[in-house]
Sequence to fold (164 residues):
Amino acid sequence: KQARFVEEYLVDLNATQAAVRAGYSAKTAKQVGYENLTKPHLQSAIQNYQKQLAAEAGVTPEKIVKELTKLAFLEIKDLFDHDWNLKNASQVPEHVKAAITSVSKSTTPAGISTVKVTLTNKLGAIDLLGRVLGIFNQDKNKDNESKDIERIEIIKAGRKKHET
Fold:
């Protein structure tokens, strides 16, 4: 069960759910999950699996820091031309494209076309980068790690479509 727990824990890093999926009782899963994470041989197994997965995927701490740095220090001006019009996709630098989480186009009832661009959470990237580099307190509330602090949305309003 412990070996299965290690495998399941790596799925979502949720000890309680890993314990349930590994076959422990749902009633005691929270306690068992916690206890399993405190056992040195299971901690070592988890770390070894993580290192193996990172090596197979070609993920290094340096690559992670570089990517976080791109997101954290994104210049929003790189999305616009000199007149502050949203650039065409082919003109947007690759590091800026990497920070885009969604793009949607729509037309208002008045016939005005809009493009909405949502960027990744810059403050979250700065926070995570600071913690990875040891700049910020590592004991920060872990519940806030995956929550978005903010999203930046850019909306480009176009001209009315000509009806034919």
Q: What stands out?
A: The chain has seven helices and three strands. The CA atoms of residues 104 and 116 lie 5 Å apart. The two ends are 68 Å apart (CA to CA). The helical segments are 2-12, 15-21, 29-38, 40-57, 61-72, 94-97, 122-132.
